[in-house]
Amino acid sequence: MNVTRSRRSRALAGLTCLVLATAVVGCGGGEDESASGDTAKCQSVDKVNYILAAANVSLGSVAYAQVPQELGFFAEECLDVTIQASGQTNSEIALAQMETGRFDVGVPATLSQVVFAGKKSVTKSVFFTAFTNIGIFVANDGPAQSPADLAGKRIGVTSIGTGTAIYCLESARLDGVQADQIEQVPINSGLAAVAEALRSKKIDAWCGIDSDGVAFNNAGLPSHRLDTKFDKDLLPPGTLVATNTMIEKRPDVLKRFIRAILKGYVFALAAPDKATAIALKLYPESKPAADNDKEAFEKARAIVDERMKNSKPPGYPQTPLGFTSDDALERGIEPLKQASLVPGDIALDSWRDLTLLNEVAKDFDPKPIEELARTYQAPSF
Predict the structure, then answer these.
(1) Cis peptide before 237, with omega less than 30 degrees from 0?
(2) Which residues form the SsuA/THI5-like domain (predicted)?
């Protein structure tokens, strides 16, 4: 399904179908615009298949999916981009699908990308999408109120062995709790089920991302993120990856794709309220449960605000969007080496390549996007 439709001049005229793997699970009505109108000035249009390691296209992906999709940033770069979710919050599934050649780019957990690249030379990180968004969340009245309290406790995870789960186990290890002292409980049926498990104390903590903590509080479960010794700035939790084939054989296409992603980030950082409105209009199934649209919007806005806060690299704005230091990355993969999850001699260049991002960033001007963010008329809720 084509999702590059630009509706900037029509103020979100229609809804877009959400595709999960091969099944259409939701579609809104409204006028259908063809991509040809958006790319009419292009001499040619390049196809890009894009996968998100997620159950669906959620509010957390607003900067690198919904905004460039809706505002035509992909189309402006003469790209025809198909966005799909992997169907599960499991980076290994998304990376495995990229290995088949079905997808050109994707957004998995960085840790999963490093482990995957240590085994198979298929993909490289080309842009870091999040920096401090993984954490351990607990109910305010729960039995675990510090990482050290997790010994003998049950921690919920989307799936055992995911990059997110490994981050959380490493956080606990630095407080003296070994992985075999924690019982991991897979919960893959949504955040409502996780919140109920925390409320009923079926689990003592949840290993998740920034938007999960906001969602728990939105659902009436007072909760917070544990303060850990793990330096979350070392290895960015989220990353945009591209296949080696894409990097080597279609570098110009990938540069244009990265430029569209940068535009999406600038817009969402400048106008998170408008980015939220775009996300809810495109994917109404991502709307949080609430008594009315205004309350739902405020809950959604809180999720987007948290994600955008965690999208800025350490040292931003001196450190541009998408970048982080080699030293931080080297120190970040050290725990993976100690746990024998990656080869001891794994090199940065074997899993990360910011060459094209460097080229794009040199002449990228955020001012037109910031002006668009100021003047754009988003739908009201």
Answers:
(1) no
(2) 67-275
